[in-house]
Amino acid sequence: MTQPSEPSAKGAEVGRRIGVGLMYGLFKPRVLGAWKVPATGPVIFAVNHSHNIDGPMVMGVAPRPTHFLIKQEAFIGPLDPFLTGIGQLKVDRTTADRTAITRALGVLEAGGVLGIFPEGTRGEGDFASLRAGLAYFAVRGGAPIVPIAVLGSSDRRGRLIKALPPLRTRVDVVFGDPFDAGDGTGRRTRKALDEATERIQKQLTSHLENARRLTGR
Organism's domain of life (predicted)? Predict the structure, then answer.
């Protein structure tokens, strides 16, 4: 079986430019704290997830190209070659997808930006329930985590298109301070990852609360 090629850094930059055009064309993003994103080196974006546009929105407003881990169900029809072409990573959420894990770690090893929805699926977008994957990538990849709160994307009032927030509505994207998930020992045991997940959850929840106060959302 042919192995999938490594995610394209150039493709991710093309995806970022497409995201810029789409997100600023359809909505009114207000971006706060983007200067906090490290300019170089591996970084993980941890994004709350309440709407389908959260990923494209972050891709369009982030200062660096982003490779998101995206559920394989989204790679259907023409979206499959398109998402792959812009450097996004297909992941099977029903199993330990070793191909996706290897490719995601490859992004970090190459000094790129990996985007993760740590809640695993769309929900309230409140970071209430995190999966262990974020801690694993942060500890194994030695990458700082930048928490990102996307607020306003799930507003249902005045929608013309059911799957989208109201066109030209304001969507706030708030970047937080980078932080390390590990305890400095480099341990990768189950206990260490569980402890890292607890630390991550506290940081992400705190960032979301601060973002809501800052934006009035």
Answer: Bacteria
